[in-house]
Each structure stands twice: as C-alpha cells, then as structure tokens.
Specification:
Among the domains are: 92 residues, no CATH class; 231 residues, no CATH class. It is built from 28 helices and no strands. It is an all-alpha fold and 505 residues long.
C-alpha cells in the first residue's frame, strides 16, 4: 500500500498541486479579508481549517487512487473531504460546501448535469418550498400566536397546563415548520409574556420548567414526521422510490408513534421531578385577553394559512386513498399562497429559508453523484467489515447507528451530521437486511442528542444567544437535556416490537 501510495503521488502530482493551490489561495484570501476588516489577527480555527483543506483533500485523492478507486471517484472523494472540513471548522456558511461539490463535479465533468443536478429537479424542491412558504405565512400572519393564546386561556391555570401549552404548540407547529430554531422563535414571545405575567423568580425551578417545556415542544417532535425536520425531507430522497411514497405522508408518524409516546412521557415525568413548582402566581389572563382582543377577528391571511395547513395535513393523512404525493400537495399550497397574494414577493424572498433549501438539495445531489461514481458501493464494501458485528440484529444495528451518529455529531452540525450519518449507514442497513427507513429515523432522532455547547445547533445555542439562560437555571436545563438524550435511545429500542408488528422487521 505504501509503495502504491508514492507511485500514485508521483503520477498525479499535478492534481495534488492544483487542489493544494486552491486551498492555499483561500487561506491567503481569509488572511487578507481579516486585515481589510480591521481584525488584528485571523482566528486560529480559520487558519487551522484552511491548512487542513490545503493538505488533507489532496491526500484523500491520492489514497483513493492507491486503494483502487478510479480518477473521477478519487477526485470526488477529495471534494467530499474538503466539504467535511469546511463544515467542521465553520469556514463558510453551512449550505456552501454542498454547492461547491456539485459545481465542481459539473465543472470537472465527474457526472452529467441530469445526475449532478438531480436533487434540484426532485419533488423535494416542491415539498421544501411549500412547507417553508406555509411556515412563513403561519408565523407572519399571527395565526400561530393567536392559537397559542387561545390554548393558554382555555386550559386550567396550573403550572402543568402552562407547560403543556408549549409542548402542544411545538408539536402542532412541527409538521409545517421544519426548523427547531424557527419554532423556538415563535414560542419565545409567549414564554417571556408568561414568565413576566406569572412573576416567576429568576433562576428558579418554575421559570426553568417553563423554558424546558418550550424547548421540548420545539425539539422532541422533529424526528417524528417527514416534514418536521429539514434533514428528514432530504434523507427521504435517499430511500428507494417505493419506500419514499410510503413514508412521505402520515405513515412516518405511525412508524414513529411509539418513540413519540416514549419521549413525550419521559418529558412530562422528568419536568416535575427536576423542577418542582409551588406557589406560582395566577396567569395574567387579562393581559393575554387584551392581546388576543387587540388582534381582532381572523384576517384573510390567517384564514388562508389555516386552510393551507388543514389541506396539507389532511392530504398527507389520506395519501393511501388519493395517491397524490405530499410534495405535490405542498406545491398546491404554495400556488394557493402566491395566487391569493398571501405570500408576497418580498416574503417569498426573505421568509423562505433559501440557504437551507439549497443545502438539502445539494446534499441530495451529492448522494446521487456518489452513486453514479460507484462511491456508495465502495463505501458499503469499506464499512461492511467494520459493522460486521451487527449480523442482521436490529438491537446491534441501533447501537451502531447511535455510536456513528454521535461520533459524526461531535464535529458536524445537526443537519449535516444526520445526513452524513445516513449516507454512511444506509449501505450497512441494506447489507444487514434492515429496513432503510429505520436507519433514517435512528439518525434523525440520535442527531438531536447533544452533550457539549458547540453541538447545540438543535436550539440550545439559540436559547443561549437570546439570553434566556441568564434568568433560568442552566445546569438544571442541561440535566433535563441529558435525561432526554437517554429517553431518545430508550424510545428507539422500545419501538422494535412495534416495527415488527408493522412488518418493517
């Protein structure tokens, strides 16, 4: 292997030099941009990151050739290595590396355009556009806040019901708002109003329990439906066409039903034990009623948003009857919002999460290029031995998925971490006779596990940046997070008998 490595290095040194030169140019540009911005010195992470991009991708290229890959596959492996390094060191925005890989593959001619751009021509584009557009209208019209106020005023004035309001609100928002951070943004004003109105003591158990309830509502349901998490939508495209059609609608929720019940039950049991609340003041019903009255009757935009929500939800629940894919239902919702003027041009430009859409479609295209170049099969062969201990046993496969996803999440954010884990593990699932959806679901729920602050892209960093830890018990919050990490693992194992009953195992 060593001799082969140096032979390849000597034969292909121009490609090696070109890749290193590009990384060197970017490092020099980063240093120059730092000086132009008046920054005394460029952060060490940036310098170390570009230095790794300078060295490691060319080595990946040479190692790929030495291990028997073709030139095209080796070059694409180097591009993938560069993309991972860009994510790990945070050198560019999250959506940029996927686009770099796709554009480079087209420029070099690694794959024809109908394959390299297949992600952008898939039905997922309609699904993402429709869901994000409906999400924007639901929040901008005030419909979501109105419904949360009504729910709060109708439920009993007790701490348990206050916390349940956030859990229910987050769960209801999840299928139409595939972003934990966006859901937290919608729930945060209500949290602040309630904490102030109830006059909850800072850093006390009552206000921390309320924060935990808001966080759980925004996060716990994200793996439970195809549209509750952006990466779920992208990962759906990794599945065979027949499996995509089966799980694009409500059957995903049916298959995840036991897991959803387990994490919800643990959430409801843990909160009163970690944060016992006594002597909480009455809910400021007059203030909330004034806010609700000030919103007036339902506006046309709210009616249309509600109609779009019901149409999409009912349509997804009845796919087996009408056989219209959820992506096309989302496309109809998008057209309805545009034709009625509910979603204006400015909102379409600013409120739709275009970077996330391009990231997800770019990841889909990357997977298709890998398959075209034979890298998916090579990856399957390479990891097959490492995961040989699974031996077709679902319990061991879940353990392997947990360890792999946790390892990937140590360096990658939630979305990239889940999709990368899925790319690694899907060939393993196929080789072991495990249903591919189980692989996708496990990576989705395990990618929400976090132990360290830098992993908190699932909402913890947003809570910190909003200053909410300044008035709550951060240590207590992180203890809750550890309990829910364990609950996610238990929920997956508890789902095994259910999956057998459904015929997935």
């Amino acid at each position: 292997m060593g001799v082969r490595f140096f032979e390849v290095l000597h034969a292909h040194w121009p490609v090696f030099a070109l890749l290193a030169l590009l990384a060197g140019v970017m490092l020099a540009f980063s240093l120059w941009r730092g000086r132009q911005a008046g920054v005394g010195s460029v952060p060490g992470q940036v310098v170390a990151g570009w230095a790794c991009v300078f060295v490691l991708p060319p080595l990946v290229y040479v190692l790929g050739l030495a291990s028997g890959l073709g030139v095209e596959a080796a070059i694409f492996s180097a591009l993938l290595g560069a993309a991972v390094l860009l994510w790990v060191f945070g050198l560019v925005e999250e959506f940029v590396p996927a686009l770099i890989v796709v554009v480079a593959a087209l420029f070099i001619g690694l794959a024809p355009s109908n394959i390299a751009l297949a992600g952008f021509s898939s039905p997922s584009l309609l699904l993402l556009l429709g869901v994000y557009a409906l999400s924007a209208v639901i929040s901008s019209s005030g419909l979501s806040y109105r419904l949360m106020l009504r729910l709060l005023l109708r439920l009993p004035d007790k701490p348990f019901w206050h916390q349940l309001t956030f859990l229910i609100s987050g769960y209801v928002l999840s299928p139409l708002i595939p972003s934990t951070n966006t859901r937290l943004s919608l729930l945060k004003p209500l949290f602040e109003d309630m904490a102030n109105g109830l006059k909850l003591p800072p850093r006390g158990p009552a206000i921390t329990a309320l924060l935990v309830a808001m966080f759980g509502g925004a996060l716990l349901f994200s793996p439970m439906m195809a549209t509750s998490k952006s990466s779920n939508i992208a990962a759906l495209n990794f599945l065979p066409a027949q499996v995509q059609a089966e799980f694009a609608g409500f059957f995903w929720l049916v298959a995840a039903g036991v897991a959803a019940l387990v994490v919800t039950a643990v959430h409801l049991l843990v909160i009163p034990r970690l944060f016992p609340t006594t002597g909480e003041g009455p809910l400021p019903r007059e203030s909330l009623s004034r806010q609700l009255a000030g919103m007036g009757p339902l506006k046309p935009s709210e009616w249309i948003a509600a109609a779009g929500f019901v149409f999409f939800l009912v349509g997804c629940a009845t796919v087996s009857w009408h056989h219209v894919a959820p992506a096309y239902l989302a496309g109809c919702v998008l057209l309805g919002l545009l034709l009625t003027g509910t979603l204006l041009r400015k909102d379409f430009q600013q409120r739709v999460d275009w970077p996330m859409i391009f990231f997800l479609l770019g990841m889909d295209s990357m997977m298709r290029i890998m398959t075209h170049l034979g890298l998916a099969r090579a990856l399957s062969d390479a990891v097959g031995e490492a995961y040989g201990f699974v031996d077709g046993k679902i319990g061991l496969f879940i353990l392997a998925t947990l360890l792999t996803t946790l390892a990937v999440r140590l360096v990658l954010p939630v979305t990239a971490g889940m999709l990368t884990s899925a790319i690694i593990l899907l060939p393993v699932a196929a080789a072991q006779g495990i249903h591919p959806w189980i692989c996708i679901f496990c990576t989705a729920i395990f990618s929400d596990i976090s132990f360290f602050r830098h992993q908190g892209t699932n909402g913890i960093l947003q809570i910190q940046s909003a200053g909410l830890f300044e008035t709550t018990d951060e240590r207590g919050f992180m203890r809750y997070n550890l309990f829910m990490n364990a609950a996610r693992v238990a929920a997956v194992y508890a789902s095994i008998p259910w999956w057998k009953w459904l015929g997935l195992l």
